[in-house]
Amino acid sequence: MFETYETAWCPGCGNFAILASLKDALNQLGLDPSEVVISSGIGQAAKTPHYINVNTFNGLHGRAVPPATAIKLSNKNLTVIAESGDGDTYGEGGNHFIHGIRRNVNIAHFIHDNQIYGLTKGQASPTTEKGQKTSLQFNGVIAEPVRPLFLALTMGAGFVARGFAGDRAQLTELMKAAINYNGYAMIDILQPCVSFNKVNTFQWYKERVYRLPDDYDATDFSNALKTAMEWGDRIPTGIIYNVPRDTYIDQVDFLKDGPALVDRTLDPMEAKQLLEDFI
Amino acid sequence: MTPSTSLMTYMAQKSNQMGIVVEQVEDEIAAINMALGASYAGVRAMTGSSGGGFALMVEGVSLAGITETPIVIAEIQRPGPATGFPTRTEQSDLRFIIHAGHGEFPKMVIAVRNPEDAFYQTARAFNIAEKYQIPVILVSDQYLADYAQTIKPFDFSRISIDRYLDDGSSIAEDEKYKRYKLTDSGISPRLIPGSVKGQVIYVDSDEHDEYGHITESAEIRTNMVNKRLKKEDLLRQELIEPELLGKDNPEILIVSWGSLHGPLKETIGKLVNEGISIGALVFGDIWPFPTKRLTALASKARLIVDLEQNATAQLDGLIRQEALISCDKKLLKYDGRMWSPEEIYNRLKGEVLNV
Testing the interface with A: which of B10, B20, B26, B33 to mutate, by most A Cβ within 10 A? Predict the structure, then answer.
């Protein structure tokens, strides 16, 4: 139902596994392609919606979140996913990432994090490690990396998770949970860039990632902060934080209780009442 | 951004009563990208700012162009460059607005002239945006945004909401919807997501094929550019010619635009009463540029005078470019203070009529 397309990704790219998990998640949730919208920016990750049969708004670099937010507010009956890379989301789109969390509109945000700008051949992204030499930072990156999960938690996100393209079974479950979460749900998905990141390889991730134990308490905020900062020799994957929060729609009566905005009928004569203020 | 703030404030005040979502977002980039997302999802969407904020929106104007997503944008001018005079007035963004957005695509620019014009033209802007699937930009300024005037009640029965949405009935069962179907008019049937089960709607900021999928094909690229630009030919047929104030075939023809309508109406009336053969052509629709009425009047006028609230005579340049007509004189003002009827009168007397 979600179909197969020829891709422009390199053989061995982590995006293949993420795409496969996305299709599995949507299939397992029993969604029809016409009920799902993916908003994406620009980059290798942002091409994802072209390789799956769902509604797609493939907009500008860094701008996946604002359209996704508005699509959900306009038609709350759609399942809305924002899908983009680490550069797109944490660099150009950093402002929208932060304020999207604050707004807490019910969208799932899947961030393909390969710690490099892959589409433009290997410049440092906001998640490239300090000191790493790249095709642009010949002497190594000077700036500190963004810690996305920690940032999301401190901004008040109610659903924060990390996945790994090498653990498809877990990733599919994470995606389903994020889509079903009532509010903004982000998954930072670690993936190798086989062509342009020679440091964070599949092997590099494989040696470090571990699944959070079954008894991990995802409702404990201070523990979540600690877990979100765990990086280096051991990198946790799974749902790091998951608590209910009122969404944007929950807080606006006519959005919550009324029909979806697209289903409303409009009559210009209704607006005539506004003239009374001036008379 | 000042002086566009009153638009948002008014709509926020009415949001509960009318069920309008008004969200103050992190920046103007988010604003236009949200508006485009909302429009894609199937509601009518509008955003607005002053020149500086509109500058941040410009990539989004281009996105509206290639994705053929209807949007209405209000640009409430103030004197620039940069922060300029934040709370004063000017008409210096005309060229910027007309050319806003990289690449080539059709858009419409309407300069509103007074409160009534603003009301009716805003409603028209939404219908045109949806009919041609283009950005329509309404241009105002601090003066028009902030002044008060007694007017007749708006006639709501004159307003229609024309959505031009497709219902998918022409799509065969085994056929996939083409968001960018090549048609004679250049306008493709527009479906909204979720409206037809099994059908998906792809829009893409990359050049795309008829389905909306990214392409590198030279042939498709050429076809898509032609398709988008074809819409401008139709758009030209929608144009409303500028309003003529004063004498029918004046010897002295003033050309102006937007909010100068009010002060000019008073001044021209006074001069006509003095027996002077004078008229002012005040442009509302300004891009694509309507040339018919101007060309007809210019051929009979003895003197053509450009009168604007900017330093570089932007309308005069546009007239030369689009109508091949040169103005004989330019009366310009760019001190951030609105032209008053007295000032127009005195400068016309001093620089045009008594020389």
Answer: B33
